[in-house]
Design brief:
The complex is a heterodimer of chains A (394) and B (279). Chain A is mainly α and 394 residues long. A two-stranded antiparallel ribbon of chain A has the order 1-2. Helices cover 69% and strands 2% of the residues of chain A. Chain A has one domain: Formate dehydrogenase/DMSO reductase fold (Up-down Bundle). Chain B folds into two domains: 39 residues; 157 residues, Alpha-Beta Plaits, CATH 3.30.70.20. In chain B, the strands form four sheets. In chain B, strands 9-1-10 form a three-stranded mixed beta sheet, with helices on one face. In chain B, strands 3-2-4 form a three-stranded antiparallel beta sheet, covered by helices on one side. Chain B has a two-stranded antiparallel ribbon with strand order 5-6. In chain B, strand 7 and strand 8 form a beta hairpin. The longest helix of chain B has 38 residues. The chains are: A mainly alpha (394), B alpha+beta (279). Chains A and B meet through helix 5 and helix 7 of A and helix 1, strand 3, helix 4 and helix 5 of B.
Chain lengths: 394, 279
């Protein structure tokens, strides 16, 4: 039988109730997925709103990635809740002073927005399929076409207007959704490690880099699977975005960290003990050195040396993988690290890893992989790649 | 040019559909906003629904709690009584109330702190369900030592109530923070928000739990279980609306402290005899 709770060992003095961590790895995965949504949407908007042609080849793919991730954002939360069947209580009778009460509305609004934008973007394809296909899938596309097969120039102009409006609205919506996740942590005064005004900004920028990095990796993998050459211009465009935002995110993280340590408020002795002990590997080595500094140096070197070809693609993809790892570690160090410093300011707890538990690593990993499986299906139903032969309108 | 032949009505139909959809979205948003405004207005203008407790009027009371740390002997009867009265899990990780021991050894600037939940004390008691303080400093030179009972502070501005997404936890008119266990979703945001570590997750009911000053007892004219069993009168409880109540007298006759006043939570457990290291 599954244990009812897992008690954490501690040193120093911690409140007796603190020995059971309220939030586990599922709550690490939750902001991670939300961040990927916001980041992927940003890349899509770079083309849809700002007209940056370099990222055009992945613009529609980015939208699908964002949608697939977003559909799974509530999953870790539902798995975490003691009473998931009551989850809608927060929507039916929201307690407006709670940052968390807004989640249902924000997420609901954003899911509708993403569905609408995706529908408009893929409407020409849906209409083509509805007209040409036979069998069950034909019915699927016919239902999705909502009865309109109009692909005239006028109709497409109308669609483009909607796509633009939705993409413009989506930028603050996606970033708001994620900044608000940062606010959930940053607004708590009970934990010195979280209680920072910079937290929403750090979450936001780390979201952008994680989404961009995920797109780089998925784009590379998709090119290999489709056996098509990687569009160097496109991947380089994403790499520049990544490079700039990673530097800015790292700067924000260091400013926040420096500020916390420099202010040295109550409990700083234990925070020092934490920083110079259990945090060295996950924060300094894994998150900062391997996850942020190496990609920055690697990308900078390639830009400086004007690297091109396979070396560039390999370097960018590897850097993107490291950035994905950086952001995962950042979420971990915030969510779990914050709970490892006791509220007493006089003790440290050690997080206990679980494998098969409802809040275990396997469950969390499944939640992370599920959107990618959905994405595999989605790219077959709605091919997001430009096909010069068919010249689908983009 | 098959597309051009599509009837204008169909194009018009789609346009109307989208316009209607946009209007519906807008209306939905406004309805939500209006609901919020109305709820806020209602919340600001009227008290929460009155509980159905025969013969009890919660507008007539203002409960508060006092702790005289100079009297506490660390016998932990309060902890035992609380666990029994409120069916709190008999383990070393879930407490509605607990007692901390502060020991200043000769030559040391900072106190050694433990509670009955410390592994050394649990091993001394022989069970996670029974509590005692082990005599672990018997061979040391102790400069100063004292016990501090802890419990929910039933704050005037409770951070836990602020963050609850459903309103399942709320402050009663008579000054106690309670949880509706039938409405709590078990997100544990309140557990995170409490600066005092007073909340915990009830693993059996899968909701959060905390001290309610034994609300089921005090609304029937009884004392909280921990106050009832304290053999030395270290725990004081009463109605601040009654100037002669033990708590009113306790606050009037002593210079009282609260824990972590800097949080802005404005706690309602008043302490006498605590030291700078207690928070």
């Amino acid at each position: 039988m599954e244990a009812l709770f897992q008690a954490a060992p501690f040193t120093g003095y911690v409140y007796p109730n603190e020995t059971v961590f309220p939030w586990g790895v599922l709550i690490v995965v939750y902001p991670y997925i939300t961040g990927l949504v916001a980041g992927a949407f940003t890349v899509s908007s770079l083309y849809q709103v700002f007209g940056i042609q370099q990222v055009k080849p992945v613009a529609h793919f980015a939208l699908l990635v964002s949608l697939c991730m977003m559909l799974f954002v509530p999953t870790p939360l539902l798995l975490h809740l003691g009473h998931p069947e009551r989850a809608f209580n927060a929507v039916i009778t929201p307690h407006w002073s709670s940052a968390m009460a807004m989640f249902g509305y924000f997420a609901g609004f954003y899911i509708i927005l993403l569905l609408l934008e995706t529908w408009f973007v893929f409407r020409p394809y849906i209409v083509h399929q509805a007209q040409q296909r036979k069998g069950l899938l034909a019915w699927f596309y016919r239902a999705l076409s909502l009865g309109s097969y109009d692909l005239s120039e006028k109709a497409m102009r109308y669609d483009r207007k909607w796509i633009f409006a939705l993409a413009v609205t989506g930028i603050p919506a996606a970033h708001g959704l994620h900044g608000y996740v940062g606010f959930i942590f940053g607004s708590l005064k009970s934990r010195e490690w979280w209680s920072s005004d910079l937290m929403p900004a750090i979450f936001l920028f780390s979201a952008i880099i994680s989404g961009t990095a995920l797109l780089v990796v998925l784009y590379y993998v998709s090119c290999k699977l489709r056996k098509v050459p990687v569009d160097l211009d496109c991947i380089k465009g994403m790499a520049y975005t990544l490079w700039g935002f990673v530097m800015f995110t790292l700067l924000l993280e260091l400013v926040e960290f420096g500020s916390l340590v420099y202010k040295g408020r109550e409990g700083i002795d234990v925070i020092w003990e934490f920083i110079t002990g259990p945090l060295i590997v996950p924060f300094f080595v894994l998150q900062l050195a391997i996850g942020a500094v190496i990609p920055i140096v690697w990308l900078s070197y390639m830009f400086w040396r004007r690297t091109t070809g396979n070396a560039l693609v390999f370097g960018i993809t590897m850097s993107a993988l490291l950035v994905l790892f950086e952001v995962m570690m950042m979420r971990f160090n915030v969510v779990i690290g914050g709970q490892e410093i006791a509220k007493t300011g006089k003790g440290l707890l050690t997080f206990q890893w679980l494998l098969f538990d409802r809040e275990g690593v396997l469950g969390a990993a499944s939640v992370l992989i599920a959107p990618l499986v959905l994405l595999l299906v989605m790219v077959r139903l709605f091919p997001p790649w430009e096909d010069p032969k068919k010249a689908l309108p983009h | 040019m098959e597309e051009d032949k599509e009837p204008a009505e169909r194009r018009q139909g789609r346009r109307s559909f989208l316009q209607a959809f946009a209007a519906a979205l807008g209306c939905g948003g406004m309805a939500i906003a209006a609901n919020a405004v109305v709820r806020e207005a209602v919340a600001a203008g009227s008290p929460p629904p009155i509980p159905n407790i025969p013969g009890y009027d919660w507008t007539k009371h203002h409960w508060a709690f006092g702790v005289d740390a100079t009297k506490c002997i660390g016998c932990l009867r309060c902890v035992e009584a609380c666990k029994a009265e409120n069916e709190v899990a008999r383990d070393a990780h879930h407490f509605r109330t607990w007692v901390e021991r502060y020991v200043y050894l000769e030559g040391e600037d900072t106190p050694r702190i433990d509670s009955q939940a410390d592994p050394v004390n649990i091993s001394a008691s022989g069970s996670e369900g029974e509590y005692r303080f082990a005599n672990r400093y018997k061979d040391a030179k102790v400069d100063k030592a004292f016990f501090v009972p802890k419990l929910c502070n039933q704050c005037t501005h409770p951070a836990c109530v602020q963050v609850c997404p459903t309103g399942a936890t709320y402050k009663t008119e008579d000054g106690v923070v309670v949880i509706d266990h039938t409405y709590c979703i078990g997100c544990q945001y309140c557990v995170q928000a409490c600066p005092y570590g007073a909340r915990f997750f009830n693993a059996e009911l899968k909701v959060t739990d905390k001290c309610t000053w034994c609300y089921h007892r005090i609304t029937k004219g009884m004392l909280p279980a921990c106050v009832e069993v304290c053999p030395v009168g270290a725990r004081i409880f009463g109605d601040r609306n009654d100037m002669q109540s033990p708590i009113s007298q306790f606050i009037k006759n002593n210079r009282v402290d609260v824990l972590r006043p800097e949080t802005g939570n404005a706690p309602n457990v008043f302490y006498v005899g605590i030291d700078k290291d207690v928070d």
